[in-house]
């Protein structure tokens, strides 16, 4: 009897072939291809890779085609670019090698207005009477829909009666710039502002309105009447009087605490708050009495703490120091199991 042994060896598929594209000027194109052999492992999907004038000699996957029966697909394209495409087929073994790319210069897209505004748009108050409007400059891929990219800022102050002041405009011609300083921003003055990107074709979308106060001085008063509430092994409750200001704000309180091992360092360097002291931030509330639980303390340890009010201008003076001891930790980390054994002995 003759026995036959058949061995099937699967491999990655052959790449797609005969890639063609139809029309790119309107920033869409249909790419078509012929499927290659699957090498005894069915093709599961295709990927389309793109090279552009923004990233020459770099290929980036722009779409994953999950239907393996397709032989055409409509691509959304970047504006104002010279694009080249290639494809890979993929099965359970892995991806094929890249197909032959489409000819260079065959897909050139038209210019278009920006499709977005700069990200991370925000206000940055500085010293008293200072305010910067800041953003992240747009990248090549985000910005290069056409020549002449620049930014337009619209900003205005909010008057004491709540009405909008005179609207002002700033044009930032250098697209790599990341901020603009409002002239004569005023002391702790509320401003509102928006940004848009524009090129030679037109303006893009406008950002949401961002609100921010201009710079101010740090609080000049210290927290008073600091008292201790409930004390446990790992936390303590603090109570103190709210710091009252006239023209400024109090955004919160920094609670500095350190154990007795840092007292020597404190006296040696003649510092009110020692280097290495831990800080716990508390948000300011409108109540006259402020309360905060400070957690993360070490059981059975002597601590010293002080509190400082802060705002965008910095920290105010320290409160009087308060000393306390945390309690012993009642949670025993080990479990002791005692087993009593009895035996019958014959003497």
From TrEMBL:
Repeat as UniProt keyword: yes
InterPro entries: FN3_dom, FN3_sf, Ig-like_fold, Striated_Muscle_Regulatory
Gene3D superfamilies, sorted: Immunoglobulins
Keywords for this protein: Repeat
Boundaries of every Fibronectin type-III domain copy: 15-110, 117-218, 222-329
Signal peptide as annotated in the record: none
PANTHER family linked to this entry: NEURONAL IGCAM-RELATED (PTHR13817:SF166), TITIN (PTHR13817)
Protein name, per record: Fibronectin type III domain-containing protein-like
Organism lineage string: Eukaryota, Metazoa, Cnidaria, Anthozoa, Hexacorallia
